[in-house]
Write a structure and sequence with these properties.
With 504 residues, the protein is α/β, with parallel strands linked by helices. The chain has helices at 28-34, 51-63, 83-100, 122-134, 152-157, 172-187, 213-226, 259-275, 287-296, 321-328, 342-351, 430-433, 439-450, 465-473; strands at 8-15, 35-37, 66-74, 105-110, 139-144, 160-163, 193-199, 230-236, 250-256, 334-340, 356-361, 373-390, 393-406, 412-420, 455-461, 477-478, 490-496. Helix 4 links the parallel strand 4 (105-110) and strand 5 (139-144).
Length: 504
């Protein structure tokens, strides 16, 4: 692989995270609901595991190389992928690769924790088939999620992997840039990547926003920057909800042609992870303590996260345990996002915004998700195709309904819930603002109420339609001008603090 000649590179993505204990099977519709992009139709922004495609577009354009795009498919985590869905998408990508030959490299976006009916290691199966097609001398690399299974079959098939370093996964674009940097340097003859792996032989959870994992990630980055032999360092956390033989924590060192150096480095860092086993996971409390602590907080907003009812971990996201505890303790000023219940959403759409109706929702997927919630509700807002942000990505959560829970006699409980149709992890505050809930605005209103104010005034402009819609959901109404605003098209708004409908 020498420099100079334009290159022809194939790229594609196939990704999901499988909780083998979850009852929800992912068929092709699961991919189509989250992301299914045929060749050339991937949007400009990436999903979690498709950044190699969007970064590759930029890199190849700058280099004057040809990028041949295959299918990109991502499904929100759930249970097993159906055999038909996996084999169909796999064969689709393999057929596109065959049609693209000859190629100088294959650069993939994978997750690494997929399990399908009849396949304990779908990514190993895919990578092995790709290697058979392209032969031993063509570069094959992929970006992985750290919550993946680094099997021997994958390591044998690929030249190298680059893995997200951060958990939560805020760096998937940066790691795709690393992947392409190494690929370009390899194709232009400047380096020869060699991958070394060390098995830590443990299962743990490694959030990188707290110690000791924060320092560990910083040390990996420091070594990459300081040591010219080291091209990339990655920690495979493993995905504990994936019950497969090679699940667990592993270290990857990608070096420039020095396998022994990489093996020693991977072992040293892996032993450091092992020495801190059991110290990485964040502290956890039960729902009673969580709600009590939140209600006692002097300042807000306060976030309660049910980490075990997380669609990002393959569960349904329809548990009512936290909601029931909030009701039991009389919490007010609460917004819950989301509870997955497509049937309840349909019923809300049929009734329409502003309607009051009895509604049963939640806790349908499994016995440990609590009991369904039966409540009189007011339908506050409906969204035909709701979306939230995740970094540069847009994450759909489908038709959605914002409902306010009422007492049997129709009084406000101070609790609102977002019901969604497409299962999705709660990535970003835009989950709430998409349905007109702004925790910051609500916190300011609450602070003003506590300070003794009875009204709040603000002004906005003609072109700020989304903002005016948000203010309307908070109870603001247009009033005559209360001061001179020199900007044409000003709107003047007022809300009576403490009035019904001004708190969620």
């Amino acid at each position: 692989m020498s420099g100079g000649a334009p290159r022809r590179i194939f790229t594609a993505a196939l990704a999901t995270e499988t909780n083998t204990f979850a009852p929800i099977v992912i068929d092709r519709r699961g991919f189509e609901a989250s992301l299914y992009a045929p060749p050339g139709q991937h949007p400009a922004t990436p999903t979690l595991c498709t950044a190699p495609i969007t970064v590759g577009r930029r890199v190849c354009a700058e280099k004057g190389w040809t990028l041949v795009e295959g299918t990109a498919a991502w499904a929100d985590p759930a249970g097993l992928v159906s055999r038909g869905a996996y084999e169909g998408l796999r064969d689709e990508i393999l057929g596109q690769l065959r049609a693209a030959l000859p190629v100088d490299a294959v650069v993939l976006g994978l997750h690494g924790a997929m399990v399908a009916q009849g396949y304990l290691d779908p990514e190993g199966d895919l990578l092995g088939r790709i290697r058979d097609i392209i032969g031993p001398d063509v570069l094959l690399c992929a970006e992985l999620d750290p919550h993946s299974h680094l099997t021997a079959k994958r390591v044998a098939a690929a030249d190298f992997f680059v893995v997200f370093k951060e958990f939560p996964h805020t760096d998937f674009v940066e790691r795709a840039e690393d992947l392409w940097r190494i690929a370009v340097d390899t194709l232009e003859g400047r380096i020869r990547p060699v991958m070394s792996v060390w098995d830590c032989r443990m299962i743990d959870v490694f959030p990188t926003s707290r110690e000791p994992m924060r320092g560990f990630v910083n040390r990996m980055i420091g070594i990459e920057q300081a040591d010219p032999k080291v091209l990339s360092l990655s920690a495979i956390h493993g995905f504990m909800a994936g019950d497969v033989p090679e699940m667990g924590t592993k270290m990857i060192a990608v070096t420039d042609g020095d396998a022994a150096y990489g093996a020693a480095l991977a072992e040293r860092l892996g032993r450091e992870l092992y020495a801190n086993r059991g110290r990485h996971m964040m502290p956890q409390i039960d729902e009673r303590a969580a709600v009590a602590q939140a209600m006692a907080a002097v300042k807000g907003p306060v976030v309660i996260a049910d980490m075990w009812d997380n669609p990002g971990g393959g569960t349904a996201g329809d548990a009512t345990v936290i909601l029931k505890e909030l009701l039991a303790q009389g919490a007010r000023g609460v917004a819950i996002g989301t509870i997955w219940d497509p049937v309840a959403v349909q019923l809300c759409f049929a009734a329409g915004e502003g309607a009051e109706m009895p509604l049963r929702f939640g806790a349908k997927s499994a016995p440990l998700t609590g009991e369904p919630c039966d409540a009189l509700v007011r339908i506050v807002r409906l969204a035909a195709e709701a979306e939230m942000r995740f970094g540069e990505s847009v994450v759909p959560f489908g038709p959605a309904a914002r409902i306010a829970l009422l007492t049997p006699d129709g009084a406000e409980t101070g609790i609102e819930v977002i019901l969604n149709t497409v299962r999705a992890q709660s990535y970003d505050p835009s989950l709430f603002t998409a349905l007109g809930i702004d925790p910051l605005a609500q916190a300011l209103m609450d602070q003003a109420t506590r300070a003794g104010y009875s009204t709040m005034l603000l002004d906005t402009l003609d072109d700020m339609e989304s903002a005016r819609g948000l203010y309307e959901t908070l109870g603001f109404a247009e009033v005559p001008p209360y001061y001179y605003n020199p900007i044409p098209g000003a709107h003047y708004l007022k809300v009576d603090l403490g009035a019904p409908g001004t708190r969620w």
